Amino acid sequence: MPVPIICLDEHVRHFAERFRKLFSKPQYQYLVIVLLGLMLCEGRRTLSGLLCQIADRPSLAGLSRFLSEAPWEAATVVTLWLRHFREMMQPKVAAELQRQRQEQPKRRGRPKQPVGTGYLIGDDSTIEKRKGKKMEGLGRHHSTTQDKRVPGHSLVESLYVLLGQRCPLAPQLYRQQAVCKAEGVPFASKIDLMETVIRTFEPVAGTVTHILLDTWYSAKRLWRAARERGFLITSGLKSNRWLRVEDPSAPQGWRWQRLSDYTAQLSASDYIQLKWPKGDDDVYVHVVTTRVRKLYSCQVVIVRLSLDAPVSQARYWARSRLGSQSTDAARAHRRTLGHRGALC
Fold first, then answer.
1. 10 and 81 housed in the same domain
2. pLDDT, mean of residues 146-168
3. Which long-range contacts (CB under 8 A, 24 or more apart) does 48-53 make?
4. Backbone phi, then psi, for 224, in 5-degree steps?
5. Are 299 and 287 in contact (CB under 8 A)?
6. CA–CA dist 25, 31 (Å, integer)
7. Are residues 253 and 298 in the same domain?
């Protein structure tokens, strides 16, 4: 297979040149080798696998030292690429806001303020290490691919999506308590790591940030962190969560009801039919503004692929932006769900 020269590809060359000042000359050469290897490697992305894609390759020991011992700071690299992304997107955001202003229909009253929404998506993934024995942070984590616990690393990852452009944030290594004790490092749960991301994230100026999380991260701490920063947040809900429903017979006028039970009592007229984002499939959506126990007041969104399917197949989300149970509210949440798979 012919090996391309990095200088002939304008996009890759500009990407690598952006970080040249952060590396010595030998370190920069290894950075280029890693970039080429990752783009060309079709098999397992091990160090040996990356080197096999390079014609004039260095030693395996040299590449290993570059990644583990060489005196360059990963945090500095992350800061640089995030700053570059914000600088690149700032004029695009300004152009998008101006476009929205110009396309607004002329009518009496105060015009609507244009909005540019950026999505901060958080999730965790397990990277299996079958032969790993002495690697830092190794533990046994659940793999959704194999549906069992496997030896390897668990990474808490985040992705920033704005106007169709994606910017990955630095992944964070999650260690279990036993691993932390053995390695002598302080323990931080996945909720702790995600809260740090939310509290330290710097969005592009002039935009609204909407955080998207799955059911594992539907915790009040994360919602509080998002609210304190003025961010919107949508997180998945499990069917065993409790929501407040109106009940005139109850002493306080309402009662707690399990989400699955609430869904089971809904009729077909309580749903609206919509197109699933990025697809032609029809779904049935029910939106209710209420309060979820151990959370806040929110919009609860219930999605079913078919009204004839069992209630156990329904999917649930909680959304911080409150509003009416109108079709517009459901359509807005449908657009939000379209970004949920961007991290996968």
1. no
2. 91
3. 53/1, 53/3
4. -65, -45
5. yes
6. 10
7. yes
Q: Measuring CA to CA, which residue among 289, 290, 288 is closest to residue 303?
A: 288
Asked if 122 and 212 count as a contact pair (C-beta separation under 8 A), the reply is yes
**For residue 137, how many other CB atoms are within 10 A of its CB?**
18
pLDDT (0 to 100) of residue 343: 41
What is d(CA 222, CA 318) in angstroms, rounded to the nearest whole number? Answer: 13
Distance CA 3, CA 111 (A): 55
Q: How many CB atoms lie within 10 A of CB 259?
A: 21
148-162 and 165-168: which strand pairing? Answer: antiparallel
Q: For position 265, what pLDDT does the model report?
A: 93
Is pLDDT above 70 for 8?
no
- The number of distinct structural domains making up the chain is 3
* In a domain? residue 1: no
Pairing of strands 117-128, 208-213: parallel
Ranges of H-type helices in the chain: 10-17, 25-40, 47-51, 60-68, 74-103, 177-183, 190-200, 220-228, 259-264, 327-337
**Pair of tokens at residue 34:** 């890693």
174 forms beta bridges with 154
Expressed as residue numbers, the domain containing 144 is: 75-232
Question: Between the CA of residue 95 and those of 88, 90, 99, 161, 304, what are the distances in Å?
Answer: 12, 9, 6, 17, 37
Whether 183 maps to a domain, the answer reads yes
Q: Which two tokens stand for residue 298?
A: 């929110």
For residues 199 and 60, state if they share a domain: no
Please provide the DSSP assignment of 102-160 as one string. Answer: HHSPP-SSPPPPP--EEEEEEEEEEEE-SS-SS-TT-EEEEETTTTEEEEEEEEEEEEE
